[in-house]
From TrEMBL:
PANTHER family: PROTEIN YHFA
Name assigned to this protein: Protein YhfA
InterPro entries, A to Z: KH_dom-like_a/b, OsmC/Ohr_fam, OsmC/Ohrsf
Lineage: Bacteria, Pseudomonadati, Pseudomonadota, Betaproteobacteria, Nitrosomonadales
Amino acid sequence: MECTVRWHDGMSFVAETGSGHLVAMDGAPEAGGRNLAPRPMEMLLAGTGGCTAFDIVMILKRGRQGISGCEVKLSAERAETDPKVFTRINMHFLVKGRNLKPEAVERAVHLSAEKYCSASIMLGKTAAITHSWEIVEG
């Protein structure tokens, strides 16, 4: 996997991923940014959410569950001093579908957290990560 990050101007940067996609990042105004794009640490949190949501959907589809939606709400706390690593992360999954089995959803969340989601497993080295989930029928 490769990525190139280029300074654009001010405190704005553009990342070009190995798959050829562009992602903008910017700093807060108090850090010289213009608040035009997410902060790098927000991107890290969003990437973690994407990684685990991908797992949940894939696991439930393979288990022939009638999943029609998946949302994960992440909230994080960071250390007060540098390096301001994540110290706590909560992930709450809203899994939508018809007749989803609670044990299948619980298993998918557990497998993602313990085996498949590289991003959250890596962040778990510095942050206490908690998971919760609910099923939305439909």
